[in-house]
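Let's study today's protein:

:::
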Amino acid sequence: MARRTGLIDTAVDEIRTRITAGDWPVGTRIPPEPALVDLLGVGRNTVREAVQSLVHAGLLERRQGSGTYVLSTSELAVTMGRHIADARQRDVIEVRRALEMEAARLAARRRTSTDAAALLDRRDERAAAYRSGDLDRMVVTDLDLHRAIVRTAANPVLVTLYENLLDAIGENIRFNFVTDTHGFDAHDGLVEAIVAGDDRAAVDETSQYLSALLGER
């Protein structure tokens, strides 16, 4: 029994690794059971139980008559998503403020010339999306900019926390675009402060726009 459990755990780890590595991206179907048997070198029952384990974890979803699809690359994201599914937008903004202010501070201190160029590109993409009036593109490019700032902070724990809140943050950004007047240049000051290495200004810029959304300015 111990050997069988070990085989299942190994199969789970192998499937999870392929998902997190992007071999099977979110939204795509994983190989059918016979192919997984060959790929993992284990029996059908082991494959079946390994897949079921990842279904329970929220990484995979079985679709009747279609196959098994990737839902997420992270159990943490699934767990956090379940806990904050009914969170108020105000709650999400307060958490964003806590994470993004520190991200802005660290990004200004640690940005490289490559980081600076990437942030300027994300800023320009956001402005272009805003001018186009395409809401979906506005949300994507705004989120991309914030993610780039967090990555520039170069703190792996902060990056992991932020990445696992992306669904909630993305929905919050969409909500803010619909209910608030964000200009195409709303984050220009923030990007400029980070590029200039001015951590105080970067924190102030972040605090100002998120506090304004909370009605605290």
About this structure: The mean pLDDT is 88. The two ends are 62 Å apart (CA to CA).
